[in-house]
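Two folds, back to back.
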Amino acid sequence: MWYVYIIRSEAFPEEEYTGATANLRQRVADHNAGKSRHTAKFIPWKLVWYSAFPDKYKALDFEKYLKSHSGRAFARKRLTEASKQKGLSRV
């Protein structure tokens, strides 16, 4: 399985990051350990949304879409806004 995920900084809630990985638990732990230069300055991170894909390339295509202008708008409106209001997290 491959996962597309969105994490939100607990210290800076306006900061979110979208990624893809085959090992979701380890990847979130890596973000919180400062192993990604793109996310290191906003730790700690909380997982707010993810989806599993049986195919790596479909996951990477969906990640690319979520990082586009329309994909960020879709994610904000449909994927993460509810978790922001309710404080939900998974994993």
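---
second:
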Amino acid sequence: MRSRAVVLNYGQTHATLEERIFRSVYRLAARPPFPPPSEDALIRQRIARPVGCLPLRELVRPADSVAVPVSDVTRYSATERFLTPLLKEIDAAGIARKRVTVFVARGTHRALSDEELREVVGPEISSGIRVAQSDPDGETVHLGVTSRGTPVRISRPLMEHTRIVLTGTITFHYFAGFGGGRKALVPGCAARETATATHFRIFRTDGPGKHPLARPGILAGNPVHEDIVEAVAMAAPTFLFNSLLTPQRKIFDAVAGHWQKAHEEACARYAKVYRVPVAKRYPLVIASAGGFPKDINFIQSHKALDSAFRATEEGGVIILLAECRDGFGSPSFFPWFRFGDPGEMETELRANYQIYGQTAHATFSKARTCRVVLVSSLRPEDVERMGMLPAASLDDAVRKAEGLLGGLPSPLVIPDAGTVLPDVAGNSLPT
């Protein structure tokens, strides 16, 4: 009889977990959403029937210039599939293509190569539109200060356009609640100091630790989300289009309309599919970030680690498959592991905040609460410096987990931990 196996994506390849080595295996996966009969028809329908506002063609005029922020290579959004019908809607308003600029919303990520730009934008890159990349250290326009004290500075080239149409995809975000929506502009096209200030809202103001509502799947009361919304409102985007994707990159739904109302509607639809109940935590969790680009670097892969952590017993073991072909993802990430414990890290972060210092702090905190075995292309000594155990392969990781646990308990396997959010009853682990 052929043994059952679980296929886990790793970069653009995969690893196979043989179930026969365990007494039983529990898989955590969302129920696949029904695909639309036609992705193109769905996109056009959503654009024609927007949430919370008039259709885009009725909101803009021929004399307008339009900025369209799109996701960079670290966040696949199906831009190449929805950009054409979105641009046709702008065409219908009488706006010439030369008055439209697609801005790759880099945030604080690296610049894209020419090949990556063509991949992200798709065939419309040759349609007469301009394509630019945002620069967190470039020239900006100061729009004001949020009630929490965040200086709002947005890319000047973008703000020179009279209309802004946000795009992106909905995902869970480990402290902003959800991706997509407002994040295309802040931090996507914001100054580094603006991005840094919004991320700093993750910390409590009434004591040490992370704000309890700065966590995935939560918008209401989330200080990071609310600060970003307040900042984006100052730029007054005209419209939004966001895709909802399966782990296989298929569009199963989409929203268009008011930049805040449509985003909230999209988040609710996404959570209904990908927030998955879990009855208990497990001593062993085996998770894949989902392959490229979700595991393009460690900073992106941490989102999958965060999901796996939520379903792991304190003192348990997490095996994470994340290739990290681009390394850590930022030169400002790894130096934070010079600190001996998360408390020291937090003290320094509060005094000298850096965005990826926060990711380092979150990583280190998880590695101290659970034991993390990382299958990646990172140098083993660097993985160890981050408080984790390096493994050369999935089989090697399983052997190491067996040694750490004194045996192989029945694991929870999360093939798409970069997408699925485990909803564990009574989750009291640090968030």
